[in-house]
Amino acid sequence: MVTEETMMFRFGADENKAENIIRSTCSSMEKKGYNPINQLVGYLLSGDPTYVTSFEDARKKIRTLERDEILEELIRSYLEKN
After folding, report:
1. Quick one: which of 26, 31, 36, 34 has its CA closest to 58?
2. What is the dihedral of CA 26, 35, 78, 72, to 10 degrees?
3. H/E stretch holding 64
4. Residue 20 Cα distances to 4, 6, 82, angstroms
5. Within a 10 A sphere around the Cβ of 40, how many other Cβ atoms?
6. CB contact at 8 A, 75 and 81
7. How do residues 68-79 score in pLDDT, each as one tens digit?
8. Residue partners of 67: CB distance under 8 A and separation at least 6
9. What is the pLDDT of residues 1-34, one digit of tens each?
């Protein structure tokens, strides 16, 4: 039987893609001596990727996500912990 409902398909590694990229990016920023919270806030508010270091391809990685995806992941993580 075929229905008109939209099906959602999740493939294992993609579920944690945003989390992994955020953690990796924050780690790279810390290694370079930056405060990752301040830098991510600057990036999210302005959209300017220069808030994120290019060290270890962090800037390139974070730009594979839309800013709303990053916010969604941060809020999801916060709510799960509280």
Report:
1. 26
2. -60
3. none
4. 34, 27, 20
5. 22
6. no
7. 999 999 999 999
8. 43, 44, 47
9. 666 777 665 555 455 899 999 999 999 999 999 9
